[in-house]
Design a protein that fits this description.
The chain has helices at residues 2-8, 35-43, 71-85, 99-107, and strands spanning 14-20, 23-32, 54-62, 89-95, 111-118, 121-127. It is α+β, with helices and mostly antiparallel strands and 133 residues long. The chain has a six-stranded mixed beta sheet with strand order 1-2-3-4-6-5, sandwiched between helices. The mean pLDDT is 92.
């Protein structure tokens, strides 16, 4: 119940759940970008040509049993494309201790826009490279 409440605590623009044999293998959502993210991007003079501004990829996870099988890559690329199709520029912040996530976003070609210190420590801000569209 706590996990479900956490997933549903904020309004999302888009949500995707990966199922494998009826079991939840992963989840990803995107929201309107939170002010901590848009304030940081604005302070860095990072703007977007997207008609709806930045969206924020959030609550992205893959069950450990399904990692290294492409589930995360499929979820992530699907959400990025859905966000772009909806007129948003995907961005995200990840804590610096999430080394696997940082490697993943870098491998996916996301641009490191910088860092800021938040309530959970140092955060790295990544933006999708819209020149790929």
């Amino acid at each position: 119940e706590d996990f479900t409440a956490w997933l549903l605590e904020e309004e999302v623009l888009l949500r995707t759940v990966a199922l494998v044999d009826g079991e939840v293998a992963g989840h990803i959502s995107t929201t309107s970008a939170h002010s901590y993210l848009t304030d940081y991007l604005s302070a860095q003079h990072i703007e977007t040509p997207s008609r709806n501004g930045f969206s924020e990829i959030s609550k992205f996870f893959v069950d450990p049993m399904y990692r290294k099988h492409g589930v995360g890559k499929l979820l992530f690329s699907h959400m990025v494309q859905q966000s772009i199709d909806a007129g948003y520029h995907p961005a995200l912040a990840v804590v610096s201790t999430s080394e696997d996530a940082i490697r993943f976003y870098t491998r996916e070609g996301w641009i490191l826009a910088g860092t800021f210190t938040g309530i959970h420590g140092v955060n790295l801000v990544f933006c999708y490279d819209l020149s790929k569209v």
